[in-house]
Specification:
Chain lengths: 279, 327
């Protein structure tokens, strides 16, 4: 072969390799979702899945009501803690943060983002569980709130920074003090980004398992007291998968499907909201 | 003239006067609240350090740095060491990155390029975002029930047959172990690897690429001698961020690693990683030293991930001039 032909051949070969890799990258998603849907759907449609407490091991049937309530409550409480604080830190970074303090806060937020999720479980354990001497939903919420914080504050900061400076100047020129300009002009203008950040953080928190292992711990009883141990969908998936009973394993798949649907819905909501705001 | 006249001629509206007379202005209050929130995250970081290090002290004082190189893990004799867990963490992460790096880089090149198969780009981006959003416990569930039998019956025996002369691929496959865990990690870091490398490759100046093509270089030659050398630093950052994620991944790995505190040269063997020891044994650990050893593992894990992440962010930041978008 002549040299130009070789070069052309190599070029085509690389192009083919790239397309091949793209397909290999896409396969896991498809296979994963396919299995979760196929194996989870029958369990999801079983009567009692949404309305019953788990049955004792070896007894067929049972549902995951405890886990559904648990996930909603734990993530809800975590959001109550993390969203206002995260948004305020975001406001601080964007409006007052061009200094040493802002840089330090930024850096710490980045470090928190990179920490393994199990570290947040250890935090919840030491700070709450070991001081109160029992596992509780609130300890899980606190752990998840810290995990959500960097996501929310980054989203808020970047949304606020996108608000044009002229808008702020217009508000100030009308005689409004800076705090009213921030709260009544800048924040509403950036609301889309803030809400999206909060929703993404909630989606991530709902899927976490490691931070719940030794905070919420899990509970087969349906209960909503945040000071008591509580079940969660992710814990149901983890524990039931490792159990030897077929009905519990089926439930793990169904809970996984429910979890994926929950997370996906939250993600899609976030995106739809952003689009509506941007128009 | 001057300030005094202006005040007399046009008095400020009543509301304004009221505000000026207050000792503390709304601006000060709001600034203070925002500052307090920002200070809270510093407090959280401080509490984090204390919550991790104080409970680890019994183990730190007892074993010292020897903990890092000790292989024993014996709750009965109260002898603990981190070497097996560190080994498992390093091996599984290395396997994960070795698989995810070429695939992720290729996919990123595909996504960043302007020409090529446009039809595939949208669905692929969507699929990658979807994968990034799937909870790790779901990936673990899938790996536990679907991937491990495939590894045990097909992949591992095949590797044993063809590459069995290497110690890496000897021994009887159970489906659980370093290799399976590494594969799971590859799947989990792929979205980060792709998203970050794509951003980095997009930041390569168009003029450079076009100049190369105009000189007659093929696409492949442009990638090899223009895009990749230019994006090298940023891609290194992307790899490091993926590594940070792989090192700390807990649940999915715990479900397939086999959970055995031993070191084995075979990739088919069961092992342990730092996070999976903690996840598995935390609630059953009795005594200060046992629990302290688990916290010690946590301290090691957190230190490693912080170093890797800070390094990665510096590299990506230096390259694209902005914060990494993913991870």
């Amino acid at each position: 072969m002549s040299r130009p032909l070789v070069r052309l051949f190599v070029d085509r070969l690389v192009a083919a390799f790239i397309v091949l890799c793209v397909m290999v990258a896409a396969i896991p998603v498809l296979v994963l979702l396919l299995f979760v849907v196929i194996k989870g759907l029958p369990g999801l449609l079983t009567p009692g899945f949404f309305t019953d407490a788990p049955h004792p091991q070896g007894v067929p049937g049972g549902g995951v009501l405890n886990a559904i309530i648990g996930t909603l409550e734990i993530v809800g409480l975590a959001s109550l803690l993390a969203v206002p604080v995260g948004a305020l830190i975001g406001i601080f970074l964007s409006e007052y943060g061009r200094n040493q303090v802002g840089d330090t806060v930024s850096f710490i937020s980045d470090v928190l983002t990179g920490l393994p999720s199990i570290a947040f479980g250890i935090l919840g354990y030491t700070v709450v569980v070991s001081t109160t001497h029992h596992f509780s939903a609130i300890s899980a919420s606190i752990a998840l709130a810290v995990l959500m914080l960097p996501v929310i504050l980054r989203a808020t900061e970047s949304a606020l920074l996108l608000v044009p400076h002229t808008l702020r100047e217009a508000g100030l020129a009308l005689g409004a003090p800076r705090w009213r300009v921030t709260l009544e002009i800048v924040v509403p203008a950036a609301l889309g980004g803030i809400v999206t950040g909060a929703l993404l953080a909630m989606a991530r928190a709902a899927g976490e398992t490691a931070p719940l292992l030794f905070t919420a711990f899990g509970n087969d009883i349906v209960q909503s007291n945040p000071l008591q141990p509580m079940g969660a969908l992710s814990l149901t998936v983890f524990r039931n998968a490792l159990s030897p009973y077929q009905n519990l394993q089926d439930q793990a798949w169904a809970a996984a499907l429910l979890l994926v649907m929950l997370v996906a819905t939250t993600n899609i909501l976030a995106r739809v909201y952003v689009r509506r705001i941007q128009r | 003239m001057g300030k005094g006249t202006a005040e007399r001629v046009a008095p400020a509206p009543l509301v304004g006067i009221g505000r000026q007379r207050r000792l503390i202005s709304g601006d000060d209050v709001f600034h203070a609240i925002a500052f307090a929130a920002a200070a809270l995250i510093l407090l959280v970081a401080a509490v984090f350090v204390i919550a991790l290090v104080i409970p680890a002290l019994p183990a730190i004082t007892r074993f010292g740095l020897g903990f890092l190189v000790s292989r024993s893990w014996d709750p009965v004799q109260s002898q603990f060491g981190a070497l097996a867990a560190i080994y498992g963490t390093v091996v599984t992460s290395a396997i994960g990155l070795l698989i995810a790096f070429p695939i992720g880089l290729a996919a990123a090149l595909f996504l960043a390029e302007e020409s090529g198969v446009r039809l595939l780009r949208g669905p692929l981006s969507f699929a990658i975002e979807l994968l990034a959003g799937i909870p790790s416990v779901v990936i673990g569930l899938w790996a536990f029930f679907i991937l491990t039998p495939i590894m045990r019956d097909t992949v591992d025996p095949f590797l044993n047959h063809t590459l069995g002369f290497l110690p890496l691929f000897q021994g009887s496959p159970s489906g659980y172990g370093y290799l399976t865990a590494g594969l799971v990690l590859a799947i989990m870091v792929l979205p980060i690897m792709i998203a970050l490398s794509r951003d980095v490759i997009r930041a390569v100046p168009r003029a450079l690429r076009e100049a190369s093509l105009a000189l007659g270089a093929t696409n492949a030659e442009t990638i090899w001698s223009v895009i990749l050398p230019y994006a090298r630093v940023g891609i290194t950052g992307a790899v490091l961020l993926s590594l940070g994620r792989a090192l700390g991944e807990t649940i999915a790995v715990t479900m397939v690693i086999g959970n055995r505190n031993e070191i084995s040269s075979s990739l088919f063997a069961s092992g342990y990683t730092l996070p999976s020891v903690i996840a598995n044994e935390f609630t059953e650990a009795v005594g200060n030293v046992y629990l302290g050893s688990l916290f010690y593992l946590g301290v090691i894990l957190v230190l490693i991930t912080i170093v890797v992440n800070v390094l990665a962010r510096l590299l990506v930041w230096r390259f694209t001039g902005s914060e990494p978008t993913a991870a």
